[in-house]
Structure formats: C-alpha cells, structure tokens
Amino acid sequence: MALPKLDRWSGAEYLAFERESVDAKHELINGEIVAMVGASRAHNIITHNVSVQFGIQLRERDCEVYAADMRVQVEADATYTYPDVVVVCGEPQLLDKHFDTLLNPTVLVEVLSPSTELKDRRQKLAQYKAIASLQDYLLVSQDTPRIERYKRQGSGWWYEDVVGLDGALKIASVDCELAMSEVYRKVVFGEDD
C-alpha cells in the first residue's frame, strides 16, 4: 500500500492506514509516518531472548509479554510505536475492538540499531515517559553486552546500566531479572558490521 502524502497524520488516519498495510509496519511519531525497517540477526536474537526471559518468569502471574508486533499508543501526543518487547501486568487496556494497540504497558524494551538508536534514546524516551503506567524503559545494545534502564521513581526517572555478560538487571516493577548471559545467548558481536 502506497503511503499517502499528508503533512501531519492524525491518530485515526494513521490507524486506518496501518491496519490496511500488509507489506510493512509503520510508526507514527509527532504526526509523521515512519516505516519500520528490517532487523539484523543479532537484533532478532536479542529480542527473542528478552521476550523468553520475561515470558518464563511471568508465566504464572497476571502479566503478558509481546514481542515486536504489539503497537503501543502514547496518548499524550498520539504517537504509535512497535517496541521490540512489551510487558503489561494487570488487565491490558486496548484502544478499540481491533485489540492491536496497547495503552498501559509496564515495561518497554527497544533493541538499539544504528538506524533507530538516536530516536530510541531521545524521542521515544521522552514520549514513553508520558505513559502513566510505564515503570521501566530498557535500551538493549546489540553491539556490546549492555542494557540501559530508565526507571520511574516517584515523579522522576532514575538511570542505570548493566555492562558485561556476568551481570543481571533486576526489574522490581515486574519482579523479574534479566541475566545478561541469557539476553546475549547466541549473539556473535561484530557479526552484523
């Protein structure tokens, strides 16, 4: 489906277009449609590994884990994104009867790619902070074993990072721990250069 030329897209226009699109996924950032590009092997492995770790630890709890295809709406500015991994605890709040747009994520994870890193670090970070339910935003490097975490702390946000394959990141909001050796299992650094 060809992308119609609009200066600024509304949320309704974007959703109508995206739900008809069969060839590609798109995000809506500040009224602009952004096409999603393919991911590297390392990106896909890391996304899968993170999703599996959350899934195993949360399987007996009132939480759901989605990898890559659950759209999230930032209501404050009508932004729609596809985070690499989404965790929601409690009852999922969905935008409408299509059940494809989540409103209340607890944890969002983006695996950093050269083409998206700046947007993930700045633009998405600022937008995601406006989601009242969001407790943790994780940025996972695919070039080196490193996870950066932004954690909601009262009315502000706290930053930490874990570096190296021996570490682990504890995520109290969902009572989970991501072992770095598991996040990076089967990843060969420098392979996608």
Short summary:
By secondary structure, this protein is α+β, with helices and mostly antiparallel strands. Helix content is 23%, strand content 32%. It has one domain: tt1808, chain A.
Characterize the structure shown:
With 193 residues, this protein is of the alpha+beta class. The chain has one domain: Alpha-Beta Complex (tt1808, chain A). 23% of the residues lie in helices and 32% in strands. The strands form 4 sheets. The protein has a 6-stranded mixed sheet, sandwiched between helices. A 3-stranded mixed sheet has the order 5-4-7, with no helix packed on it. A hairpin with a 4-residue loop joins strand 12 (168-171) and strand 13 (176-179). The longest helix has 18 residues, at 41-58.
CATH class: Alpha Beta
SSE run: HEEHEEEEEEHEEEEEH
Choose one word for the global shape. Answer: globular
Please count the beta strands (DSSP E, at least 2 residues each): 13
Q: State the fourth-level CATH superfamily.
A: tt1808, chain A
Number of domains: 1
Q: Widest sheet: strand order?
A: 3-6-8-9-10-11
Put simply, the count of helices is 4
| Class from helix and strand fractions | alpha+beta
Biggest sheet record: 6 strands, mixed
Please state the second-level CATH architecture.
Alpha-Beta Complex
Taking pLDDT < 50 over at least 5 consecutive residues as the criterion, the unreliable ranges are none
Radius of gyration: 16 Å
How many angstroms does the end-to-end distance come to? 31 Å
Percentage of β-strand residues: 25-35%
Assembly level: single chain
Tell me, rounded to a whole number, the average pLDDT: 91
What is the share of helical residues?
A: 10-25%
> Remind me, CATH topology?
tt1808, chain A
